[in-house]
Every structure is written in structure tokens, then in C-alpha cells.
Specification:
single chain; alpha+beta; two-stranded parallel ribbon; 2 helices; about 10% strand; globular
Length: about 60
């Protein structure tokens, strides 16, 4: 499924996609992961909060 991703600068996703292998796969394609870290991650990874808030608009469009 990762091969089907279109060219993008960032991927807006929720905490469910916070995995090291997924972040690495995105980085290999030059895509920045913009999702908050899961609560159980020992070292939290910073994310762009302003950009992450835009995810809600996309979800509402489909909802």
C-alpha cells in the first residue's frame, strides 16, 4: 500500500500510525509524518501542531 502513495510533503495521520517502521518508510519517500506520538512511546516525537489540526477538516469532509 505504501507504493500507492502519491507524492506529498507530509502525511497527516492519527496516533494509530505512530510506528518506527512506518515513519522510516515515509522518510524514504521524502514524506514527513505529521502525527502525534502514542502515549506509550518512551521518547515522544515532536509534530507540527498547526498542520496536524488541518487533519480534522479532511476527516469532517469524509464524515
Amino acid at each position: 500500500m505504501l507504493d500507492a502513495l502519491l507524492k506529498a510533503k507530509a502525511l497527516l495521520s492519527d496516533k494509530g500510525y505512530d510506528a518506527d517502521w512506518f515513519r522510516a518508510a515515509l522518510a524514504n519517500r521524502g514524506i514527513a509524518a505529521c502525527d502525534p506520538s502514542k502515549a506509550n512511546r518512551k521518547i515522544q516525537i515532536a509534530h507540527d501542531r498547526t498542520l496536524y489540526r488541518q487533519r480534522n477538516k479532511v476527516e469532517n469532509m469524509f464524515g
